[in-house]
Amino acid sequence: MSSNQAPEPSFLAPRYWPTWMGMGLLKLICKLPYSWQITLGRWLGIVMYHLFASRRHITDVNLRLCFPELSDTERQAWVKQTFIHNAIGLFESSMSWWAPDSKLDMPITLKGEQHLKAALAQGRGVILLGGHFSTLDLGGRLFSRYFEADVMYRQHNNPLMDKMIREGRGNHLGTIERENLRQVLRALRKNRVVWYAPDQDFGPKYSVYAPFFGQDAATITATSRLVKLNNSPILMFSQHRNPDNKGYELEFFPIIEDFPSGDEMADASRINAEIERAIRKDPCQYMWVHRRFKTHPKGKNYLYRKTD
Q: Could you say which residues form the signal peptide (predicted)?
């Protein structure tokens, strides 16, 4: 090890014990039948809805901003459903990391496959635009049955959690840390698919305020730069759990033409519109528990401040 390299943390330290226990419990649950995990996820989501008041408030604010047409009763029902879908997604993530293929034999509907094939035919790699759906990790595992891809990710603050997630995803997809643009360029030059989700609030530094469900949302401008790396085509990919909880739909949207345009605001708006269109297929399967609008001209978390 060079003197400049940080030492490997000791994952036996007491501060990692809760992570070991939590991930160990998920591994045990992963051995249960799929239908049991869906049922457990539903009940866990209801419990989380009642216990986590701050996340419930964040979800409520997000849905009130993005779907003002909902009545209070309708919105609260969506808030609860969001918690249920995200809890099921927790178990789906563990399945994506550790379950054998034999446990993932549920029906899969592939839509718009021709759009990704057309993008790959250009030979310049593909930027696959994604969103933080509750089915994110399992969607990646199911995607890997049909195509190879590298997924861009942000390092987790917990090094042990980061290691487990990276290794779990790495069993079926390549992984690229989001700041490693050289590795992204190498992948694109090999005509690989690079899966990238820019739908979170990363602060104002490299963002513009672009519309998202009619709200000004801090949206990173890096998407345009990623496409420019190798002049690669870009298209939206979404994944949803079927309403009967007995299968999944993976959908590829048409290539986004004339992108980037040279106008950062216009480009960010187009990206948000693609993600919004995918979310509207089943809004409660999106991760509304995140503070999508935390960056605001009137101060951080302005929209999430509680008023008496």
A: none
